[in-house]
Amino acid sequence: MADQDEAENPEAEVDNEASGGKKKKLIIFIIVVVVVLGSATGITLFMLMGNGETAGEEEASEDSKKAVKPPAIYFAMEPPFTVDFQVGGRQRYAQLSITVMGRDPEAMEAVKQHEPLIRNNLVMLIASEDFQTLQTAEGKEMLKTKATESIQQVLQQEIGKPGIETILFTGFVMQ
Length: 175
Description:
Elements: H1 2-8, H2 10-48, H3 55-68, E1 73-87, E2 90-102, H4 105-113, H5 115-128, H6 131-134, H7 137-159, E3 164-174
Antiparallel strand pairs: 1-2, 2-3
Helix pairs in contact: 1-2, 5-7
């Protein structure tokens, strides 16, 4: 019966061949797109993970680094530092409350033990700064860096390592 239809209608045979050719072209096109996308994804992953770690390994190594990091230890240096400045013939004052932050208990004990030396160095450092500069955020940040380095220098001389990470200004009043 199909043979009779094809014999009677030769255009039906041409349509079947044309639709079969379109399907082949569509399948080939889809395969090419999938291969190109797969290659692009593979190259991107290779470039991003150049050190050979997978994403899971990278997250695990970051988590283990965070887990190994000991908790922060804080030591508030009391009483607050009070320093006077001569500005344009007038007497000015600054009062700073400083807290030392570190992670090494031995170093923090050394900070407590050598507090008089550290306080002396910090008072001299603060007094040597320009009053106008200390009123700016940049001036405070610069003082924070210098004060941290000053304490680290004392600890380096006394216990052989810098010992602290930073200082924190928990109070900063200027008048």
